[in-house]
Amino acid sequence: MENRVQKAIELFKSGYNCSQSVATAFADLYGFTEEQALRMSASFGGGIGRMRETCGAACGLFILAGLETGAIDGKDKEAKAQNYALVQELAAIFKERNGALICRELLELRKNTPISSNPEERTDQYYAKRPCLKIVEEAARIWSEYLQK
After folding, report:
1. Which of 95, 60, 66 is nearest to 83 (CA)?
2. pTM: predicted TM-score of the whole model, two decimal places
3. Nearest one of 76, 80, 95 to 139, comparing CA atoms
4. CA-CA distance, 11 to 32, in Å (whole number)?
């Protein structure tokens, strides 16, 4: 599983967003190609479309939770409950390890910070001022730990 954590880190360092990095590192376990995983998780980076809401790395975790336990029958309340319980468990672990679930809080941005759809250039300064790489690593580690249970 450590290889998958490293893959998530490398994906992020290669320019993929936090959600893509986490979801794609494990997607083959669920029969998805890398391209499919990158596309299905693309919109969740930057706290969902750079709106700084729910952290994209956490969203990547939640995508994986859906692949693992998501209901495929709309009337299957038990499956829905199982999936929601897993998401809540993952969210609690994520918050405990990272301090928050909300992107703007993790980045220590003010609530009224302007939202831009343009991602920042990935430079040494970018990595130095943001905890994103560590958070991607932690999210991938959380999923690895879940799979090893």
Report:
1. 66
2. 0.94
3. 95
4. 16
30 — phi, psi (to 5°)? -115, 15
Token readout for 22 is 């986490």
Token pair 């939202």 in the structure block, residue: 115
Residue 107: other Cβ atoms inside 10 A: 18
Phi-psi category of residue 48: left, alpha or beta, with phi > 0 → left and psi -120 to 50 → alpha: left
Query: Hey, which residues does 54 pair with through a beta bridge?
Result: 102
CA gap 99, 2 in Å, rounded: 23
CA 99 – CA 105 distance, rounded (Å): 9
Query: What pLDDT does residue 111 have?
Result: 80
The answer on pLDDT for 86 being more than 80 is yes
Among residues 116, 126, 141, the alpha carbon closest in space to that of 47 is found at 116
- Closest Cα to residue 34, out of 4, 66, 71? 4
**Domain parsing of the chain, residue ranges:** 2-147
Query: What is the pLDDT at residue 113?
Result: 82
Report the C-alpha gap between 136 and 79 in whole angstroms.
27
